[in-house]
Amino acid sequence: MTRIAIVTDIHHGAPSHTKRGDTALDLLGQFAGWANTQKPDLVLDLGDRISDIDTQTDMRLEREVAEVFAQIDAPVQHICGNHDRDHLSVAENEQILGTALGHEVIDLGDWQLLLWRADAKIHRDTPRVGFDLPEPDLLWLSHTLQRAEKPTLVASHVPCSGHSQTGNYYFQRNASLSTYPQADRVRDVLAQARVPLACIAGHVHWNTVTTVNGTPHITQQSLTESFTTAGEPARAWGMLELGDTIHWQVFGDDPFEARLTPTNQRWTAPLAPFVSKLAAE
């Protein structure tokens, strides 16, 4: 059994909309203390450590977050979110966190963890504002999953399930910013795996489980989000236990729990549109 403590979307900084960034460092300190008590095999940060302002401010905010993560006894793995990348490069994040932030495979014994650190920068200087998944990031995931020989957890900042954003404060009316425009290709890549898979991401600030083509896709609530908790920070962090099944539990004021059984069985391809079928007849 491998135990992974997870925190995401810390958003340290000034309050912004429903993000209670003013509480972030204190809550992250509480998470660090909890993690040291729980003694997980590793700690996973899924990104958006700060709410971005400008380069100088963002570097200070990221350093303050890094100082709290340094209090954790277990190995800590980081992924960059879009707010970590608005004004800072990956290299600058690496320098602040003291670790490499490229794609990585971590052997967990019976499982493996794929840290799919795909580009999470939101591009605002193009006709279509949003994410744009680089082809090399997709190819790394494809080649790695084709070679996978054991159950695999894929971790990223941006989710790729394509799940509905109905009710989401940020994304119900901005669904195109909730995922990559190439998310359908990501799901095609996931289907190449011949082993049981699960995916976990942050970004969308709520707890969800969506199963697509036999693969459960998990998103975890932000540490400081408040749209589901009446204006108070959710204080959300989680523990993911990997064994014959997956047990995921989110603690805090927006609790969630799920037990999942990943499989290498993929689903029958969806039916063609009914209208096209009738027209052909």
TrEMBL record:
Sorted keywords for this record are: Hydrolase, Iron, Metal-binding
Q: Which Pfam families match?
A: Metallophos
Its top-level enzyme class, in one word, is hydrolase
Gene3D superfamilies from the UniProt entry? 3.60.21.10
Is Iron found in the keyword set?
yes
Q: Which SUPFAM superfamilies match?
A: Metallo-dependent phosphatases
Question: Could you tell me the EC number(s) of this protein?
Answer: 3.1.4.53
What InterPro entries does UniProt report for this protein, alphabetically?
Calcineurin-like_PHP (IPR004843), CNP_phosphodiesterase-III (IPR050884), Metallo-depent_PP-like (IPR029052)
Where the record annotates domain Calcineurin-like phosphoesterase, the positions are 3-206
Please verify whether the record's keywords include Iron.
Answer: yes
Question: Per UniProt, what is one GO molecular function of this protein?
Answer: metal ion binding
PANTHER family (UniProt xref): CYCLIC NUCLEOTIDE PHOSPHODIESTERASE CBUA0032-RELATED (PTHR42988:SF2), PHOSPHOHYDROLASE (PTHR42988)
Which family is annotated? Belongs to the cyclic nucleotide phosphodiesterase class-III family.
What is the protein name given in its UniProt record? Answer: 3',5'-cyclic adenosine monophosphate phosphodiesterase CpdA
Name the gene that codes for it.
cpdA
